[in-house]
Design brief:
The chain contains 16 helices and nine strands. By secondary structure, it is α/β, with parallel strands linked by helices.
Length: 341
């Protein structure tokens, strides 16, 4: 039964380790020789890293194999797992389309090819046997030139497969180009694009200058931890934090998941919504229901707070066009059937 909404999942980090390992061996990739045994690959792929930058290097491994030809293979398995094992009714996939284009082409040719990538991802995500409402978030990237990032924003505004834009690539790297990213977000809003952004994930990624342009905040955990005075303004804007619990342990941002209790407590007290997400379910070998269970068993939130976060995920979903979440629809349907007896 599909019940949940996932607002923050990266295409590059969504491939579960066994699917990726099998693909590498079937395609006779150079990496298959490095990891002949699956258990060794799983350990390498999912173990915690010391920093966010080290963690993000794993994305380059997956990006190199997610090409126009192979994306349908990976996305079909992603959607199958999301429906069967995670009970997802709604999924937003985010990625940088430029990084899936042919690296042998010129920059302008790769920019042109981005539209093809977006179409491939969009069509592959619509799987009849696994009916999930899905959409794409296109990510600008801290290590891509301005021209490419601007083209990503323009493409997002032109595609029916896309619901929003984001900026990614490690929030510590925005500082020297902050004015540039502010300009790009202003441009995005002028095109009526919805917006989120990876900010306040780490202690080096605190940029209050970007907050006014975001409709949701990717991670945002350092706001309640380091700058709680901003929560009142976040609540006034109706912004939602996309909190991804396992990520902070995998990137060295937190040493103990219990540190998130202050994040949730302060946000609830300030009236700031939180959507619980996975971020990189494949890299973590973790699915969304586990994130819920982990927060509950560590006494970070209770069942009422979990329900509030699940409701917030649908309320802040960029492409969920219904007034209710699926559980409410089913409840209404059951009441109607009982009344008819």
């Amino acid at each position: 039964m599909a019940l949940y909404a996932e607002l923050h999942r990266h295409l590059g980090g969504s491939v579960v380790p066994r699917v990726l390992w099998r693909y590498l061996h079937r395609s006779e990739s150079d990496l298959s020789a490095r990891f002949p045994d699956y258990s060794e690959f799983e350990d390498f792929y999912t173990r915690p890293r010391d920093t966010l930058d080290e963690y993000l290097e794993l994305h380059t491994l997956v990006e190199s194999v997610q090409t126009a030809e192979t994306l349908p293979y990976f996305i079909y398995r992603l959607m199958r797992g999301a429906y069967i094992f995670e009970n997802l009714a709604y999924l937003e996939l985010r990625y940088t389309p430029f990084l899936r284009t042919d690296a042998q082409l010129s920059q302008s040719q790769r920019i042109d090819q981005m539209a093809e990538i977006v179409q491939i991802v969009g069509e592959a995500s619509r799987v009849k046997e696994y009916p999930i409402v899905s959409s794409q978030i296109l990510c600008m990237h801290s290590r891509l030139p301005y021209e490419v990032n601007r083209a990503i924003v323009a493409l997002a505004a032109q595609s029916d497969y896309v619901c929003a834009i984001d900026v990614a690539g490690g929030d510590a790297h925005y500082a020297e180009r902050l004015d540039e990213f502010v300009e790009l977000y202003v441009y995005a809003r002028s095109l009526n694009l919805k917006t989120t952004g990876h900010v306040y994930e780490t202690t080096e990624g605190c940029y209050p200058e970007l907050l006014p342009y975001l409709m949701r905040i990717g991670h945002g955990i350092q706001i309640p931890l380091l700058q709680p005075h901003l929560l009142k303004e976040v609540a006034r804007r109706g912004q939602c934090l996309e909190v991804c619990p396992t990520t902070y342990l995998k990137t060295g941002t937190m040493k103990d998941i219990r540190q998130l209790k202050q994040v949730f407590d302060r946000c609830f007290d300030a009236g700031v919504d939180i959507a619980i997400c996975t971020d990189n379910a494949g890299l973590h070998n973790v699915r969304l229901p586990f994130e819920y269970e982990s927060l509950l068993t560590h006494d970070i939130i209770g069942f009422e707070e979990l329900q509030a976060c699940q409701d917030a995920a649908f309320r802040h979903a960029f492409a969920w066009n219904y007034a209710q979440r699926p559980a409410s629809m089913l409840t209404s349907l059951l009441k109607t059937e009982v009344g008819a007896i």
